[in-house]
Amino acid sequence: MAIEVLIFYLLAGVAIAAAAGVVLARNPVHSAVSLVLSFINVAAIYVVLRAEFLAVAQIIVYTGAIIVLVLFVLMLVQQQDLPEFHGGRPLRRAVGFLLGLALLAEVAAAILTRSLRGAPGSWTPEAVAAVGVRWLGFELFSAKKPIRWEAVGCCCGGWEEGAPLPYESRRWDIPSAATVGKSGFYGWKIQFPQLENPVASGRKIGTFGRENRNAGANSLMAGGRD
Amino acid sequence: MDWEALIVSYLLGFVLLNILLVLMAYMTWFERRLVAFFQDRIGPNRTGPFGLLQPIADGVKLISKEDIVPANADRLIFLVAPLLSFVLAPLGALVVPFGDSITLFGRQIDLYVIDINVAALYFLAVGSMGVYGIILGGYASGNRYSLLGALRSTAQVISYELVLGLSLVGIFILTGSLSLVEILRAQQRTLILGGLELPNWFILSQPLAFVLFLIAAVAETNRAPFDLPEAETELIAGYFTEYSGFRFSFYFLAEYINMIVVSLIAATLFLGGIDGPFIDGVWWLVAKAFIFLFFYVWLRATLPRFRYDQLMGLAWKVLLPLALINIGVTGLVRLWGIGAL
Fold first, then answer.
1. How far apart are CA B225 and CA B304, in angstroms?
2. Of A118, A219, B69, B151, which one has the fewest beta carbons inside 10 Å?
3. CB B327 within 8 A of CB B166
4. Domain that holds residue B127
5. What distance lies between CA B183 and its chain's CA centroid?
6. Distance between CA atoms of residues A213 and A203, nearest Å
7. Which residue in chain A has the smallest CA separation from B151?
8. B136-171 pLDDT tens trace
């Protein structure tokens, strides 16, 4: 048991240090890499607790998909155009500091008012390992819940389907306020807020390369509105 | 804790990784010779008999070259990214079963490094991590071509990983398990089709999934015709343009190790792994993996590179719907009790 506790402290220590790195790093790419490190260590803690499925799901979903997308976006924007994350206006700094303190107080209150260990249930690591991923599948897809899972699956599928489309520099046909206001969906009068057109208003648009303002990058950054 | 089993696992893993490294070196020789024959050339044949010492000469050359870090680079990430690629590449092979258990020194030893109950997902997870080496390497080089290669690689891997994962779901439905050992056991049964007695390999019951897996696996390993991240005609060399010496060789090694690992996994999942006529054993697995490796080289020597929009269109408009249809049909077949195990 002792060696598992030791491994846990090692993993947890690295995870916390990496999480601190996410906030402290000045380069957003370094932040993302720190986040990956943190996620991997949390996944390793799941493995120590014999929850392999959770660990693998964590790696596939968070490090394999979400952070990859984060890095993808970070590469599309010009690093010099990013706002300054550290410093800034004094009011903003003060509010950020206070909000951070409030969050810390909340977490501290939640931890200190309860025992950290929680109530021991019937599931030991050995019991979890014995039933494995098979039981998890049966439980998730048993007769009671499949509709919900299908719904979630459809949503996720939609997101994944839509994710690479802007990169193909397709134009999204977002209904403008004029057309929707006339017909309306299901008889409802919906007024979309009229977004200002960044190209027409002459606002500076972030482009992929400074001297390379091609149409694809423009439509992407402007949300594809004509 | 069973210390002996742990030590045996570590030893097996160590041996496996070393075998992979040697195989990888000779994979480069095999590819160069084979592509040369495809193109009516001779290929490397001067260093040693049949050019067999060529990989070693290449290794010495790469290690002795200067290790250059561009002034524009993000230094730390630039130095770490190739190592990341290289370290993650062989991890997928740890779950491949290489044989049944044998008894050695009065102790039963299973001929696989580890049997985790989510082995197939573990393979996918390691594959999805492997892309970080490419993304970070391309970003950290501080070079537009490298960055473009990395961007392409990101979009490509995210798209094809989905197909890769979904193509395996049919197998999971048929076996009811994610463990490669269980999947292998399911394939060692006999499939009776009319008067024919066939091995229950999943290439027979899941042919569509096999084709999808094959295409997605080639795309995942960034090999021709899906080698857009390193398209030399447009991007010089893509994400590793700025790398030299042994850091470049790490990317090179990772690519070949990835190919070998994917071939081993494909042979285990679809071609019955160690199962074969006469005596089951690791030689069948090697022979089947070799077919896949030959296929990789064959593709490279034959097909031109995809255009970017063709690549994305293929993944999202063709492969993904086919994979979903395959899952639906397999699920219905399983529900109606045909092919139940």
1. 6
2. A118
3. yes
4. 64-102+115-335
5. 18
6. 14
7. A72
8. 888 888 777 888 888 888 888 888 888 888 888 888
Residue with more model confidence, A34 or B13: A34
Residue B188 near residue B272 (C-beta atoms within 8 A): yes
Percent of chain A scoring above 90 in pLDDT:
7
Do residue B117 and residue A134 have CB atoms under 8 angstroms apart?
A: yes
Overall average pLDDT of the B222-250 stretch: 77
pTM: 0.75
**For residue B292, is it within any domain?**
yes
Residue B135 at interface with chain A, using a CB cutoff of 8 Å: yes
Q: Report pLDDT digits (tens) over A192-219.
A: 444 444 445 554 444 443 344 444 444 4
How many structural domains comprise chain B?
1
Q: Given the structure tokens 């690479």, which residue do they identify?
A: A164
Quote the CA–CA distance of B267 and B264 in Å, as a whole number: 5
Place of tokens 């039963």: B108
Asked if B118 and A133 come within 8 Å (Cβ–Cβ), the reply is yes
B229 in a structural domain: yes
**Spatial distance between the Cα atoms of A11 and B333, rounded to a whole number of angstroms:** 44
CB contact B87 to A (< 8 Å): no
Instruction: Report the C-alpha gap between B150 and A63 in whole angstroms.
Output: 16
- Identity of the residue in A52, A63, A75 whose CB atom sits nearest the CB atom of B118: A52
**Interface contacts (A, B; CB < 8 Å):** 87
The Cα B6–Cα A182 span in angstroms is: 70
Q: Is residue B144 a part of any domain in this protein?
A: yes
Does B198 touch chain A if contact means CB atoms closer than 8 Å? Answer: no
Tens of pLDDT, residue by residue over B299-337, are: 888 888 888 788 888 888 888 889 889 888 888 887 777
Indicate whether this complex's ipTM tops 0.85: no
The answer to the question of residue B109 being in a domain is no
Q: How much is the pLDDT for A146?
A: 62
**Per-residue pLDDT reduced to its tens digit, A153-207:** 777 666 655 554 444 443 444 443 333 333 333 333 334 444 444 445 554 444 4
Interface test with A, best of B151, B228, B320 (most A CBs within 10 A): B151
